[in-house]
Amino acid sequence: MLVIPAIDLKNNKVVRLFQGNYEQIKVYGDNPKDYALFFEKEGAKRIHIVDLDGAKEGKPVHKDLITEIAKSLKISVQVGGGIRDEETVCFYLKNGISQVILGTKAIESFNWLKELTKKYPYKIIVSVDVKGEKVAISGWLKVSEIDYLEFLKKLNELKLFSVILTLIERDGTQRGVELERLEKALKVSLNPIIIAGGISTIEDIKKLKNFEKKGLLGVIIGRAIYEGSLDLKETLKIANEP
């Protein structure tokens, strides 16, 4: 099971939001590249970078910083936040990014997403950000009428690298993982799932490890690493156990 440390960028700084709220923000550092290199050194095989300013504005804001970070690493980097056209997808894939993460545009323009996955098979990750049972969009600022399980079923026809299932109510809270919606998602999704939101203890990792054979590809961890409730090396060791 992949353990994927998250680097959320706002004003060129490493930050975390509480439940996606831009008003509740904590700054952890002003050199994102140092964090990325540290995560690589600790043994992470993949890093998750989100351009928070980009997600809010609907276009990339930190693209130069992100590609600079990716080029300094030997491990895979997945990037999201404000990616809403093919030009940006192409730019990232040509500049050291392994997979791009699409959210709002993927939900609003399914045919566009379908064509993109034909052009770039397994290079696209779709982020399904869930509030209650519905999918949130626009940097989580709006909640759509789309049921998350129905949308996951729709994604089954596409050649995706994976789907990220983010449980917004848990994100940045360190309240622990919630398994109910994950179990439902794994039952309907043919694409591998990466879970995000609330993962904060080794117990959470052990619980999630049980879902690896059911299609859980990995976990994204942010605040728990920054706050020290999870030790990255220990987490990686448990996640990598057979």
From TrEMBL:
**Pathway named in the protein's UniProt entry:** Amino-acid biosynthesis; L-histidine biosynthesis; L-histidine from 5-phospho-alpha-D-ribose 1-diphosphate: step 4/9
Question: For this protein, what is the EC number?
Answer: 5.3.1.16
Any one Gene Ontology biological process term? L-tryptophan biosynthetic process
GO CC annotations on file: cytoplasm
Q: What is its main location?
A: cytoplasm
Active site (catalytic residues): D8, D129
Which InterPro entries does the entry mention? Aldolase_TIM, His_biosynth, HisA/PriA, HisA_bact_arch, Isoase_HisA-like, RibuloseP-bd_barrel
**Entry-linked CDD domains:** HisA (cd04732)
Any idea which GO molecular function terms this record carries? 1-(5-phosphoribosyl)-5-[(5-phosphoribosylamino)methylideneamino]imidazole-4-carboxamide isomerase activity
Q: Name one Pfam family in it.
A: His_biosynth
Catalysed transformations (reactions): 1-(5-phospho-beta-D-ribosyl)-5-[(5-phospho-beta-D-ribosylamino)methylideneamino]imidazole-4-carboxamide = 5-[(5-phospho-1-deoxy-D-ribulos-1-ylimino)methylamino]-1-(5-phospho-beta-D-ribosyl)imidazole-4-carboxamide
Per UniProt, the keywords (alphabetical) are: Amino-acid biosynthesis, Cytoplasm, Histidine biosynthesis, Isomerase
Quote the subcellular location field of this record.
Cytoplasm
NCBIfam families linked: 1-(5-phosphoribosyl)-5-[(5-phosphoribosylamino)methylideneamino]imidazole-4-carboxamide isomerase
| Similarity comment | Belongs to the HisA/HisF family.
Q: What is this protein called?
A: 1-(5-phosphoribosyl)-5-[(5-phosphoribosylamino)methylideneamino] imidazole-4-carboxamide isomerase
Question: In which organism is this protein found?
Answer: Thermodesulfobacterium geofontis
What are the top taxonomic ranks of the organism?
Bacteria, Pseudomonadati, Thermodesulfobacteriota, Thermodesulfobacteria, Thermodesulfobacteriales
